[in-house]
Input
Amino acid sequence: MKPVERYQRLRNRQLIAISLVVSIVLFAPVLLLGVPPLGRDFKGGSLIMIENVPDSSSVKSVIEGLLGTNVDVVPIKNGLHIETDALSENDEINIKVALTQSGIPTASVIIEPIGSAISGLQSEQMLYSIIVAFIVIGIITFIIFRRRVVPMAVLLVVGLDILCVLGYMALFRVPLSLTSILVIVMLIGYAIDTNILLAYRVLKRVGGEPREQVAVSLNTGLMMGVLLVVILLSLNIITSAMQLNVLTATLIFGIAINIFNTWFLGAGILLGHVARQPGKEYHVSL
Amino acid sequence: MSVFRQRRFGLLLLVVFISAMLVWKPWGGLEPQARGLNFGVDIAGGYRVVLWPENSVTASAYADAISKLQARIDPYGLLGTRFRTLGENYILCETPQLNGRTKELLTKQGRLELFIGTGLVLTDEDITSFGAPISGGPVYSSIPIKYTENGGEKLKVVADVAGNSAGVVYLDRPSDAILIFDEGTLKETPQLTYDNRTQMFVVYSRQGLQYTLLVPAIGTSLENLSPQALDYLINQAGTKQRVLLLGSMENFDNVREEIPASYQVENISRPKGESDDKWVKRACGLISDYQENEGVGAGRIIVEANLQDARDIRTILSSKLPAEMSIISETGVEASLGGGFVREALIAGAVALAGVFLLIYLRYRRWKICLAIIGITICEFVITLGATSALSLTIGLPELGGLLLVIGTGIDHQLIVTDEMLQGGSPQTKNVSVGWRASRALTIVYVAMSVIIAATIPLSLLGFSAIRGFTIITISGTILALLLTRSLYAKIIDAISAS
Output
């Protein structure tokens, strides 16, 4: 039996249950390992300012080896700015000693605590704006489709997508940063596309069974997802920028999970609604 | 009629051409930096400036200073400038561009004083707001101001008594400093004289009124500090902290050695073509010697500045800092996304398009459809970049995210249109007319685009500045695609399916 045929044979509740189970599994790392760690964009850290650096890469590896975490290196004229998590006094002394052993005098090294790029107030604003964006999505989809089930399905899918992405970030210890906020808002945009396509094909279909429509739209949706993944994968492989690599890798995961959630959870909810209300179908004479 | 002869196609070509010109800017010279795209510190590198407040400030004032500096340099968060605290007393500014104007905006406190005669009449606390400057020609501009009730009364009372005395407005008057000038360089002119008795400069306003610049000044030769100047500096050592040298540091090499160590020495250099009186006025912080009152509560100060400079003065006055800022260090930083990032991204874009082309061909087996999707995608990319250039957005990581979203959803929508039109969305609708299918396909696409735009607006209005560039690119790119390319693409697919 072909996968599409197997998919079409699944009952609505099965579709929803599979999606929820997978989402719970993907969200589990957040429950087991805790929420993704806050990145330096949110919590600040320390800035190591080094002048007259003979070999930047060796300095970076010395500090990373000492701290056991990744550091952000910004090359400056005749030196380096290295951003790390907040350093203790001991860490600072150890770094200065290690750098001295690498031939960099202590006088050329200044270490200062650095504040966050995104303040607490800005984080709150961002959270509120995402909540308002959710409300707006709900209102607009309700106005367009005139059925409560559409905003419910769209918002559930988008919400689950975000939770699964948080699970991925918790599992791979991807810190919450400006990059991860971008992933979330981009994912909302892509998820809107697939969910509107699905809702339109199911609720405003012309002839045919709703399940056939879902299968046809799954075909389109899969292709949409694959093309997006190709674009993101090219960027991920060819560019060497760490931030962009994190963004594209997380987004590829998000798009994959969105396809799954849309055509299991979203489709299950919409098909269940159609099955309960057969009188509200659109009929067009062919 | 062929789709290529339709008005819509001509309009798209025209917009693509204009966008390409905005991005390429062939009139901007051959230097890549002069082209029409501004890249952020992430992509093109920039500067890191460490600022230090000259007076000690509280923690809350420190946070306030950061938000005021942000409001001065990058009020809408579109220029890619960011501020962070550094240590306990410093502020780290990261900016793609650093020039004299940026430095002024970073360092000036924004302390306003209005004197009539030698009496201080108003300070910034007596002013409620500064309006948008109005150009009065290439040399003069006016800045509307509104006084507090108390301020308006004070001004009225003093002006009535003082009669024709000129009201003189200072911005950050260096009240803790002494000017030292070279007697050989600075000559007396009809507009500028030096009063030996008060040891201050006297200038004449446009209206012929005479007033004194309220900053002590003393002349010397460049060979060594004159005895009078040395005496004056020694006498004032307890009350004044700074010496401002009118000229370059090198010119005053001999003089500097003799200045008592208790003074902090700075210099005010003169740009080419600046007259003596303008130079001295600037050194004293004078911005206006003429005001117009419009009733008790409002007025205008006339500044000797073009509109852009007047806007900067207003920005500084409107966002007063708790203290004047000193630039402790300024360092050029390289791009954090890597030096060759733009080249890598272009290669990645080309590879991605090739992959998209191949996959679409495998799905539809029609190369014309592949060409149409790739062509429209490139057009949307160029148009969105053109919008970025027209809106003077700085492209950093968030803006790249916006571009990716516009391109990604663009390809999504073209696939939806293609599937609806070629396959009718379901096997049962293949017999429905192509026009009806096109209309249905476009409805799905327009609904999706409307929801994306509507969802992005709250992020733009409520979200913090770093995300604003992302939202503006997403909204503008989506709207332009909605207006220019979607229905045209449907017509192209219609033509391809008919052939």
Q: What stands out?
A: Residues 15 and 51 of chain A are 60 Å apart (CA to CA). The first strand of chain A starts at residue 45 and ends at 51.
